[in-house]
């Protein structure tokens, strides 16, 4: 098998050519990527559902907008928390999230992955994914993390790819791969995140941010 270079912690930014409506202008934070597949959450799909409506104990720790985000089309009945702990080093030394990667038969594993966050080199109830970004154990008492969390976002569902599937999509030109920033997780204006991430790139991708919403107008 061809060795896969891990993209864990990076962003997948949908290209204008990506036709799947689930990922139209999506910005996906990859929580795990290796030979077994990939798992991430879409950062710019807010829903009308308030965090307080489903996870009242965590509502006070979520920023604006204080709603649940649709993390992807898989396992929409499971919740996953992504939190930023200020001051944490930016490295890629943490092991990825070993979880289900798409497919209807993997829903139970995905729920387990969202719930099984172990203590590591960070506050109890938080596990580093990349740098200051990590997974939050939503089964833990919120007060364990209240003082440490700089931001928290709750996602329903996730985006998953089987072995080699994401690599195929990258070859097809469906995604741009760029570095993530902690602020991407808690953007107060998620509808503008696609343009904002592209605009900060110091190459031709900055020009892509100017593309109209309707590609036929370009």
TrEMBL record:
Region span, Disordered: 87-111
Homology family: Belongs to the UPF0301 (AlgH) family.
Name this protein carries in UniProt: UPF0301 protein JO379_002605
